[in-house]
Amino acid sequence: MVKPLLIFALWLGFAIPATAQCRLALLLALDISSSVSVHEDRLQRQGLAAALRDAEVSAAILSGPWDVALAVYEWSGRYQQDDLLDWTFLSSRDELEQVATRIETSRRRYAEFPTAAGFALDYALEKFKTAPDCDARTLDVSGDGINNDGHSPYELHREHRFRGMVVNGLIIGGATNRREDDIALMNFYRNEVIYGPGAFVEAAEDYNDFAAAMRRKLIREVEAPVFGALE
Known about the structure:
This protein is α/β, with parallel strands linked by helices. The chain is built from eight helices and six strands. It has a six-stranded mixed beta sheet, with helices on both faces.
């Protein structure tokens, strides 16, 4: 018996792959470079946990006919990238709570390395090689400073290494209390970090605003597409 969803999709002219059980593989990268204090690092982890527990975020994650798969890693220097969460399907509120608790109680491994954003994206490419077979893949990079070690993310984008994927950004202002530095950070993310159709940069005024900014970003990234909204 043909499922009603498949009939509806075929009527609209869409082809649904037989393996389409995951709508989005979402990979989050958290900055732990030397510019991030111990207190700011805790606000970042607690902020992500709070965003995952938010009612609107959880509703958006659980709203689609297929799951969202999530992975999280921390990054700083050229070789300082470590997983906080390997690929996990988010299919219930209990699973969201388990993931939130794991992120909230995690501890950074490094605190003295520079901001090697290009290497952070290199690591993301490796992580996506082990991702579930989802309809879409999105990387989201959080950070409070511009690249100051190694190659720029733009070098990867120039070679279209993230072809078929989306790279979004979440900038955290206030690191130097200089407006011009926050503007430079936004320009760096807009011009060198984000990539792909619909890519965007979300902004937190400082680490105290991180949870709210993460909440806005996650809702925008994980909401299931509506057929009527497609052109």
